[in-house]
# Entry
Amino acid sequence: LMELATNAGELGLWSRDLAKGEVWANPPLRTLFGFSQHESLQLNDLLVYIHPDDRTRVAYDVENAQLAGMPFEGEFRIIPPDGRERWVVARGKTVSEARGMRRVGVVLDITERKRAEERFRLAVEASPNAIVMFDEQAKILLVNALTQELFGYSREELIGESVEILVPERFRAGLPAHQAAFFAAPQARAMGAGRDL
# Structure
């Protein structure tokens, strides 16, 4: 929570008394959800603004986390009274105080990040080249439609698999060394340049 708070500007903070059900919310959270600064709140007052497609899932996850005394974390959409759909990430946990048990947490508006991710996804899909993104463990994280067409695998078959699945066997032995060299000094360059596969 502290890391999220440190990296955020307008971080919404909340606290809920589990015995009374009352919710305290700071000004950024009230503004995000469209509540006045002095309006009394209950959990359902917040849940009603969650996007209908996400509401049941979020309510279920929040309730289960609370019953188990476990932390909750999730991304979902809200539709505040102004009607502008927003994406948020929320985190919460149970804490014990002298006055009783409370759930406390944070909510951060991540709408701009989600929009940037969507623009990136559209650019990747529109590329005239096959695109494959993988991590340092060579696990495939992202492929575009042209990759599926070129290699004959579905996106679901590729995500999470080793990138070796796309490399001919005769070149697989040298692949770890090439990957290690790239991640040791990452820079923009064509992978496999000068090599026909």
